[in-house]
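I am still getting used to backbone structure tokens and would like to learn alongside you. Would you supply a protein for us yourself, any chain you care to pick? Start from the sequence, derive the backbone structure tokens from it, and show both lines together. Go ahead whenever you are ready, and we will take it from there.
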Amino acid sequence: MSQGPQGSQIPENEEEDYQFSGPLLVSKLQEAGIHPNDIKKLSDAGLNTVESVAFTPKKHLVTIKGISELKADKILAEAQKIVPLGFQSATEVHARRSELVHITTGSKQLDALLGGGIETGAITELFAVTCQLPVSMGGGEGKCLYIDTEGTFRPVRLLAVAERYGLNGEEVLDNVAYARAYNADHQNALLTNASALMSESRFCLLIVDSCTALYRTDFSGRGELSSRQTHLGKFLRTLQRLADEFGIAVVVTNQVMSSPDAAAGPYAGNEKKPIGGNIMAHASTTRLQLKKSRGNTRSCKIYDSPCLPEMETHFAILASGIGDPEEEV
């Protein structure tokens, strides 16, 4: 027996195909008797792999035009035969996690803080008063998807990083798929496009910069807070599904807001807290707080993590990307 997504066991007769192909295209369901027209409907709805189908609740499948409850039952049954979901031992979980790929940030100190770099198969959140993320292609041996909600993406930064690592600049640019999101609905729809791209080619990193900016403008006031959080929660769940499904690293940037503490008195400073509340906190695997230090140096603190200790380090923002500061801060 071997392990599939989330460590579930795969029957011996299916193990070879699964290990060879990794995430399986949804077209494989045709071999299990699912009609090609129904497979196209699944793909059009953003379910491009067997894993994504197996992870989808029945109530969501039946909302796809042309997929009845009877069809949904059959589709789920066949998908879960190929990608079974079940219990596993802690030993298996430990073995699987020991094989996780980490993508370098470009800074040895920052990589050490993160236990090796940006973790794949998880969501890493960066938040600060201002926050810009340079893209490093090192470590993942795959392409990068970049969703830009604020119009701050600058390809010239990629060329500088490419030169630093001795990479061909044109190839680096070709390996980054960029999309500008103009509203919260569009931001969510871009994940459907991202799923289609990832089912066709090897991607190792998905960046959303910033995750919450459009939600702050599209949903204003307390009257829309519930709708905003519901919409944001759906977006974050889709991000995690993509991380699980394709084993990619997901990095999201976030903004902060002042959170005055009335009990602290009028002379106490306002604490800066990340936007998104509990929805954002529960969705992010690792949360990193960035602060400006001297010159081009920034501090990075582990704000929340299931496995990393609460520590802090410093890194530098260089013309060629992220690196270590030249002197101790």
